[in-house]
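Help: why these numbers?

___
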Amino acid sequence: MGLLAVSFALALPAGAQANNLFTLDSQADTSGPIVTDSSGNGYVAWSQPNGVEADTTFFCKIPRGGSCTDPIVLPLPGATTSVEGIAQAFPVIGTQPGVVYVVAPRYVRNDTLIWSSINGGESFSAAKVKDEGSYAGDTTVDDVLLAPGGSINTTPSGELETNDAFELASNNVGIGYSFTGNGLTTLPTSFSFKEPGSFPTGATLGFTNPAAGPNTGLVEAYWTLTNPYEVSFYQYPGPGLPVKENVGWTGPKKVTDGYLPRLASGPDGLFMVSQDYLSGESTENAPAVIEVRKYNETSKSFEAPVAISRDPSSGLFEPGDIYENPETGTLYVAWPGETSGGSYVMHLWESTDGGQTFHGERNIATIGGAYSEIPRLAVAADGQGWLTFKDEGGLEVADLNALPGPTPTPTPAPAPTALTTFQTTGTTTGASISIPAGTVGETDQGTLSGANAASATGTVSYALYGNSGCTGAPVSSSTSAVAAGKVAASAAVLSALTPGEYYWKAAYSGNTLNDASVSTCGSEVLTVTPAATIGGSGTSTGTTVTITITCSGPCTVTITLTIPSASASSARKSKKKPKPLTLATGTFTLPNGGTKKLTLHLTKAGRKAFAAHHDRLSASLLLSEKIDGHTILSTKTIKITPAKPKHKK
């Protein structure tokens, strides 16, 4: 049977829930990571306190539909006191048939124990001790992954020896990464990332391409205990870079505001589940949206999220788990939440299209008080599987069947939305408007429609472009909030635009009940027209002044005819600017622009003043034009030329 067998009393304690399959160990002091083989058998490992001595480490193989009747004790080499126990035991199915490992980092000794089995977990060899430095530790290890590759070798004495390596993600002073193996002859790898951010925790591992070879495309994600919480990741791109050092990894790269990320990798790629803040909501509240993202190998980043649930009651501050079946690529997400009756349960969702949509939502386990640590999910190719988690009843085991009782109301899928916009300048509003050059203060206003638009939250991003394709850098941009379906207007354009045509485009971010949407580029056109110009000339006789005015567009012109009231020499002596004397004034309108000739008749006093200063007569032209409610003023001064006297024959 193994090194040592013990019998467990599997009667449910008072705190356990009878809806779950069974309580594996009511005294467990660690979680129980579980894996499954292609036949649906479960392999689980955990530890139990043992007084002043080191904790006892257990392994159990659970047949499909059965229970753990004969757990195996895995002795700890060299451990004599309770502080020398393991941080966590992880079962790992090897690359070769029948090979099973239990990998267990230890706190105080800062080493890693590896027990090996070549008969499917029926018995294990004595633990190999990977020396100090085999994991970046003295604290918890949250994930252990099998590195691609591996073999079974025959030793010189004729014994079979497995040769596999493991990736470890740990939480120490920061975020740590380790690489070790039972047949690894080189020194183990262990280091802490240098700049993960403030108070990082919750490390998790996955491969972007599991078939590419050891370490290639390895991703380690985590979250920070900041406000707001942030999810970030590091990536080791592949061969040619030092995996043993921080410099060989890229990152950190921020993914989202949220927490509790978990990674899963398989034939359909790498996926992350996390609990995120709802767009537009205060970060003073707990993140409430369960979202799944797929890793994009081209952009080296995670794609836009797919929201599978919005549940403010999910704030247990402990995560769920995500699993990708290595044969089918089917995704499974398990996450704790609250029922309408106030009890806590574990929800389950499935995706068969690469994480684009999720279905089959159901409650698969009830959760007692003192829920803690990471639950572990493992699913066979036929969809049958296992869930382990720890609560006040101990280490619990559940399958993926729905609990008795009403099926939870499925989270509604996001509904399509449409975003339309209109622009405003001054008192004018419309889809297409014109303004004269020099105008500022234009704004755009979005309106959302759709089945769930009244519940829309998030943001709308506005941009004004100088081309009809709405491409390149916008001349003005801003972001406004959406609350209860109401969209705030854009910020005003603060810089005067050059004459030409401009095009608005707006984009809505979406939320759990509403799809993102974009307005149509070209549905609004803002035309900036050149300001009207004025020109003119003037001549005079002894009694009249004739002025010719030309406007480039519709205009109203006020003409003021003046002469200086004092001579230039007297002004210089008094050091005062001479005050002009007004001889005549008049106003006229050119409704379509063009040229107009106006004759002003001088009064007797005007003729006398003009006779004294006919060579210094000038006219001040004040141009006033109105376009779309805007009044534009400009001035021009023209000199009046005395008419040449006509000689009689």
